[in-house]
Amino acid sequence: MIGTLDAVVLGATDHRALAAFYRDLTGWDRATTGDDRVTLHAPDGWRVAFQGTASAFPHQGHLDIRVPELEPALERALALGGTLLRRFERWFTVADPAGNPFDLGWQPNIPAPDLLGPVLDAPDPWPASLFYTALLAKPLTYNGDDGFAMIAEAGSQPILFQCVDGYHPHPGQLHLEVGVADLEAAERAVLALGATRGSDGWLDPIGRPFRLTNPDRG
Q1: Strand-pair partners of 37
Q2: Can you tell me the distance from the alpha carbon of 157 to that of 55, in angstroms, rounded to the nearest whole number?
Q3: Which of 32-46, 121-135, 166-180 has the highest mean pLDDT?
Q4: Do 105 and 97 touch, CB atoms closer than 8 A?
């Protein structure tokens, strides 16, 4: 293991408004961590951060939010400014007020909305899942012919990957922050796994940004 998952980060030009949408939708606890960042604390130890960006970029991924009842959750999302994109039997795909998609999935045995995990777009889920398996020491739990892969189990902060056509990574999009104890050692390790340095942090092997964080080094 190189590090541990610290936060899922979504960029937005109005990050406070976007954080308020998800807070009001889910009831997750809110904690402000700076002028340009708001963090929500979700069940199972998830931290979902909303960070200010100068320009809006497509997230190339989405949050998979589980809810005990679909229709009331959809009604609330729409009342808060969301837009229904697709309706399926067990989940709905909705756009938040900034235009980013997220899924509402039916999970009847939970008391309140929680986060299954982030779903990261990829041209090929296999190399992406292998990179984050090595980075976070999470086991590969699914790799199917349906274009999806998953590391870790539900309840253990899983990360999902889905195959998409026309994947074009951008700065400021949905990305992961990984906490490490030794920043220099972690940087050497991710380079060995195929990561490269980006303009603001690191890029994984498919070009998606991620960050290594250390409380002593920032």
Answers
A1: 34, 51
A2: 29
A3: 121-135
A4: no
pLDDT in tens, 61-71: 999 999 999 99
CA 142 to chain centre: 18
Report the distance separating Cα 152 and Cα 216, nearest Å: 28
For residue 6, what are its two tokens? 């610290």
What does the DSSP 8-state code read for residue 45?
Answer: G
From the list 217, 216, 182, 183, the residue with the least C-alpha distance to 202 is 183
Instruction: Give the Cβ contact number of residue 185 at 10 Å.
Output: 10
* Amino acid symbol at 156: S
For residue 186, the model assigns a pLDDT of 97
User: What is the length of the chain?
Assistant: 218
- What gap in Å lies between CA 86 and CA 7, rounded to an integer? 27
Q: How many helices (H) does the chain have, and how many strands (E)?
A: 4, 16
C-alpha–C-alpha distance, residues 180 and 163, integer Å:
29
